[in-house]
Amino acid sequence: MNPLYAELQWLARAPERFSESLKAVGNSEIPLGLELRALAAPALDLNQLTKLAKAIVKAHTEGKSLDPLAPFRLAVLSNSTIDLVTPALVASAARHGIALEVIQPSYDQVAQEALTPDSQVNRSKPDAVLFALDYRALPLKLSLGDGETSAATVQGALGYLQALGNGIKANSNAVCIFQSFAPPPESLFGSLDRVLPGTLRSLIDNINHELAAYVLGSGDVLLDVAGLAETVGLADWHNPQLWNLGKFAFSDELIPLYGDHVARIVAALRGKSGKVLVLDLDNTVWGGVIGDDGLEGIKVAQGDARGEAHLAVQRLALDLRQRGIVLAVSSKNTDEVAREPFEKHPEMLLKLEHIAVFQANWNDKATNLQAIAEELSLGLDSLVFLDDNPVERGLVRKLLPQVAVPELPEDPAWYARTLAAGGYFEAVSFASEDLKRAGYYQDNARRANLQKQAGGVDAYLASLEMIITFQPFDATGRARIVQLINKSNQYNLTTRRYTDPEVAEAENDPAVFTLQVRLADIFGDNGMISVVICRPAQAGVWEVDTWLMSCRVLGRKVENMVLREILRHAREAGIRKLAGIYRPTDRNKLVVDHYAKLGFTKISEEDSGLTRWELSVEGAQPEVAPMKVVSQGSSAPREESLA
Amino acid sequence: MDDSQVFARLTEIFQDVFDEDDLQLTPELSAKDVDGWDSLAHIRLILTVEKAFKIKFSTSEIGKLENVGDLVTLIKARA
Q1: Which of A276, A299, A461, A511 gets the most CB atoms within 10 Å of its CB?
Q2: pTM across the whole model
Q3: Could you report the predicted ipTM of this complex, rounded to two decimals?
């Protein structure tokens, strides 16, 4: 089975303690509806969906409020056994903000329930009726090579479905959700099955075609099971053993996927589909980091495999915009630097005029997403946030659970497909107004003012279980040290470039203090993310020759921990003062206040913007971050936990 | 896998499928002894066991299962 679909890989993985968390529900100040939605958010297997559905049904029966989930009553009529499927519908609906109640009459009573005015289904006044029929429900007879009879068979099948729909409409205002039909993978002739009229394959093809035409503009809805089955593969969709065992229409392994697709339709009917796609930039919309790699270095060119992957994301974003989805940007970058590729890179498909709100700053993304939602006057639950960085995804999921955040694989080649597979923008209708919607927001890439800060960032950082490792320069780290020294542009105080032999010189000079810094967290090892070189200036003074950091770990107080480590060594070496320099370039405006924020005192400023700073070693106490610290190297290795 | 390992894993599976934390297994345990062990739960149980042990049962094997003991025998023959 293709795991992207079978395991719903755009969703986070279910937590280990799912059952325990489910049992604990209803005992906090968080509304029950939100607790249940949070439990439904990750990918759940059939047993987990079943348990969650049981809890939701229990809440219904006990008359408990499931606000803010929107209530929806769905009747399901099927010619197959759907008892394993209905719990998946209920649980998946919670994921999409719906409190679903399923009306399920006894097995294979489709026509009776639809056509009898006082049937259980008609009396229950459902909001929608799902005709979960598979091809075996249709009055189909093979008429090999006979065009006329085949056409009549197709019309007969349509007539049957329409009669069912009319039966429901005569007795309630329910929306009718029809399913297209997945043909079995077996063919009678082979390729000729698609060519010759009257084969099962060609009959089903034609029925699906006519059904789609019937649904268009009718107010009814189509659940494209044929498309879904094609996507995962007809051979995986159909399971003859399960049909024989208990009349199960499709593989149990695809029940979670099917449940999510039905839930998307119901959510779309209630207006709960995504309306805005918020894009991260670095390594999402282009390969590489614009602040470090510059226009020439980012990967967004045709003919470059990595570039093509990111262009596919841009193309998908543009196509979504064309159908009415609004595009926004949330990036950790200086605004001018982030805008450069949109304005100047010849291969970029996305331009600033396509972006309604452009948030590029150094603030956390949760605060920025809130600002974007407010600027567009839309709820947070309309936002879908695409970011390659699992730390950013985790932060937004934690602080803004209403925002949809697809999980992304390592390889950008699969980003566009994964975003599309998530079905965040499901729609059940399309009008010409939708084409213009993106324009209504006057895409002038405006910046939204950050209003209140999103709370909880510190607690989230503490939950990352960060481990920071300090070592002096050594031969093993040298290649990476040289790389960082030569390619870091943004978080770089002096932008001094050194060759490999020059770095080796610093490594071997006992008077020079060097640091290579690594950071790991629950998402993995970020590798080396900061480099420091301190050289003796006057007696008792260390001058910070080089201080650079990867922007990937901004906002985590790594620089505070680095200062702490420098101070520790400075004290041991009898140093009384640290002297810092900020040498401005057109790329490092980000660090103009680096020394001020660390408690240094400004000593002087030149016309060029170069500033000098000082810090007394004695009494200096930098703010600490909740990390475990590992110091290795010349003096005895030590570990301490500040978490 | 030996008997006790299979039993331990099966116990976890039964507890998960039937949502009963204290369910204990014996070789004689069968559908009549457990609340909610109807034909649908039986299918769900078989499917879960197949996935957990990475095995597939044939239609006739599934039809012949009478109790937990039979299930254990079948798993050991396959796994």
Answers
A1: A276
A2: 0.89
A3: 0.91
